[in-house]
Design goal:
Layout (H helix, E strand, L loop, with lengths): L8 H25 L8 H22 L15 H30 L8 E2 L6 E2 L22 H5 L11 H4 L1 H22 L9 H15 L1
Antiparallel strand pairs: 1-2
Length: 216
């Protein structure tokens, strides 16, 4: 896969989230045990950031071929058959990603005053629903650079807390990235660059090498 800006989306966001989670948790510990205080919104924000980490990590793992899988059959069949099996597995993965993207969009859309899709399994159109752009998180304050959301999603009324559409936007974004990574992997298998999307023996060797370095 080509090393472009699209290949660095997840790892950049994940690195930022990990850094912010570490700093926020450390600041809350200091506030609690040194100043006998508490950052009220720290726990809720950390939970949301962890959810972002997991959801974005799914597509990142596809890109890095880090998802676990059973390759017992792949290891005993010819390369041509392995390629066909890889394409079949990608087909199922694409169906799964499309279903997840539909569900993610349908859950997120009302919080952004948008229309969820119709259809039980696959989108057949859009259906109207009551907007929920006024729904807020429990404790997280609205940062100054997001106050513009009030005019777009809350009829100009001031938010007391961060609107839920902000943390929930990761749902369709992460599932769209997952679909994109599966499409990339499908093309890579078609070209013969890789033969599967699961953790390969190269990953095992990398772990063994890292463990050996730690011992040294």
């Amino acid at each position: 896969m080509h090393d472009s800006w699209t290949d660095k989306i997840e790892e950049t966001i994940i690195a930022v989230i990990l850094g912010l989670m570490t700093m926020l948790t450390f600041a809350n510990v200091i506030a609690r045990f040194v100043f006998n205080s508490n950052i009220l919104w720290a726990l809720e924000l950390t939970v949301f950031m962890f959810a972002w980490l997991v959801l974005l990590g799914a597509s990142y793992a596809v890109k890095k071929r880090a998802h676990l899988g059973v390759d017992a059959v792949l290891n005993i069949v010819p390369e041509s058959t392995r390629r066909i099996l890889g394409l079949i597995s990608i087909g199922f993965c694409l169906i799964f990603a499309i279903l997840m993207l539909k569900g993610a969009w349908d859950y997120f859309a009302p919080y952004a005053n948008l229309s969820p899709t119709s259809g039980r399994w696959f989108p057949t159109g859009f259906e109207s629903t009551r907007g929920q752009g006024w729904f807020e998180t429990q404790d997280i304050p609205v940062p100054f650079f997001l106050t513009w959301l009030e005019g777009v999603f809350n009829d100009g009324d001031e938010y007391e807390k961060l609107p839920k559409l902000v943390p929930y936007v990761v749902l369709p974004v992460s599932m769209a990235l997952l679909l994109y990574r599966f499409i990339q992997a499908g093309f890579a298998i078609w070209r013969g660059d890789i033969d599967s999307v699961i953790a390969s023996h190269e990953a095992e060797e990398a772990v063994s090498e890292a463990a050996a370095n730690l011992k040294d």
